[in-house]
Amino acid sequence: MGSSGFSWKLADHPKLPKGKTVAVVVLDGWGEAKPDQYNCIHVAETPTMDSLKKGDPDKWRLVKAHGSAVGLPTEDDMGNSEVGHNALGAGRIFAQGAKLVDLALESGKIYDGEGFKYISECFEKGTLHLIGLLSDGGVHSRLDQLLLLLKGSSEHGAKRIRVHILTDGRDVLDGSSVGFVETLENYLAELRGKGVDAQIASGGGRMYVTMDRYENDWEVVKRGWDAQVLGEAPFKFRNAVEAVKQLRQAPKASDQYLPPFVIADESGKPVGPIVDGDAVVTINFRADRMVMVAKAFEYKDFDKFDRVRVPKIRYAGMLQYDGELKLPSHYLVSPPEIDRTSGEYLVHNGIRTFACSETVKFGHVTFFWNGNRSGYFNEELEEYVEIPSDSGITFNVQPKMKALEIGEKVRDAILSGKFDQVRVNIPNGDMVGHTGDIEATVVACKAADEAVKMILDAIEQVGGIYVVTADHGNAEDMVKRNKTGQPLLDKGGKIQILTSHTCQPVPIAIGGPGLAPGCRFRRDIPTGGLANVAATVMNLHGFEAPSDYEPSLVEVVDI
């Protein structure tokens, strides 16, 4: 115990025994929605998850995984894997992503931070370039934040500003990009009226330009680099509204796949390539589709494509996009300071821990679970296993992904007797759900269910306890809907596929032969969320949770 009186020692739970192996299973992108043909979890054969749902009603319930439950600003903000695993591991709710940026912009704190000071040294002689997704979708970025950053930057000395836009149509309706560009153009005109040289310099659709993720296709990033840095693109326009309107007229054109374009002056010269002495900020707050472009801007040794010209710039992200890689090294808004996570407490109390997933979600069940912290708390008590994900293909091509390999590894860890807790993320529902391929997502959900069965069978063998939950919704609703819940159709009468996460609640189930008699979900926490899971798991290990954690979902009643 330190001088502050703090102790890592957890009190024993009065009614729940110690010594049981606990499996904590997180199904990624597995929400609860009405059963219909667009609910891939409902359509898929998922006998294991079905049996949990249809079993003891005191041992299955729903929890919130979006909005304020995971630290996001509004109940319209869908959850994601990063904030979800932060909440699952931390046991408390921390301001996240968009909310952190909102707080920093509202208070003006963003302009006092190291990141802004770093880029502002370019304002006297150079240009400030802002690159990011232009929409109010609130998943990767928000238009109102961009406008506030433009205002604040100009008030803090930026005299020449160029915006490189990426059109959305994925988290918002296809076709909405024109309106967003018009809003931005109107605001830039206001800034020009105040003597700031501010204009749009380039653009392109988010899925075709800049915003690739997981190193799936570096050509996407290269197209952005060519337009933003080199000022080169297959299309040149005098203004961005005209650009988006014209490019949308091509057959099968959509906002998210618009080709790259540059804005040129009357002589055909690009108005805003990035050059030596400039500052660059990627304005997205969500990390996954910014990591690759951050590497292109930040890394000296870079071999993913020929950058042709590498300008000497000052680059910062809106946030740090990868805490493990410390990427980027400069950022405008600091991450939440998450301390005293459940993982750290449990290791201090002797709980031997095994964590496993495949590459695309391995960081979630380790780094994000542990409060954005890399590495082990105690190497002697912990083992983290990463199974390499398929690379170079989209996930609907192999929708089973590595679910069965993950299941086998976790099963073996349980049966080895070496671990008190096994923690696992099964990514299929989310990663395949994002492709929009309904048939493949059905296959993905079946594979995830099979992996859960392997884990629960092993828990049965060792007399352990399981907790099965999810981090946010995705696969349970694959179609965009109107306000009455009916599927939206495009101009050709086809359903509009939903590729994003959802705001649906997610299931949590407890069970296993090691679960104490009379242990059940409490009935007085109807609005429980992911942050309640940490205290729940601590209880099932036989410990009381720290007093400032969100309350446990379980109680023990006399039977």
UniProtKB/TrEMBL annotation:
Domain of life, per lineage: Eukaryota
* Assigned GO CC terms: cytoplasm
Q: Which cofactor does it need?
A: Mn(2+)
Domain Metalloenzyme residue range list? 20-544
Keyword Lyase belongs to the record: no
Which ranges does the record mark as transmembrane? none
**Coiled-coil segments, which residues?**
none
UniProt xrefs under InterPro entries = Alkaline_phosphatase_core_sf, BPG-indep_PGM_N, Metalloenzyme, PGAM_B_sf, Pgm_bpd_ind
Q: Which SUPFAM superfamilies match?
A: 2,3-Bisphosphoglycerate-independent phosphoglycerate mutase, substrate-binding domain (SSF64158), Alkaline phosphatase-like (SSF53649)
Q: Which residues bind Mn(2+) 2?
A: D28, S81, D471, H472
Q: State whether keyword Transit peptide applies.
A: no
Domain BPG-independent PGAM N-terminal span(s) in chain numbering: 101-322
Q: Where is the active site?
A: S81 (phosphoserine intermediate)
Q: Which reaction does it catalyse?
A: (2R)-2-phosphoglycerate = (2R)-3-phosphoglycerate
**Protein family per UniProt:** Belongs to the BPG-independent phosphoglycerate mutase family.
List the protein's name. Answer: 2,3-bisphosphoglycerate-independent phosphoglycerate mutase
| Highest classification ranks of the organism | Eukaryota, Viridiplantae, Streptophyta, Embryophyta, Tracheophyta
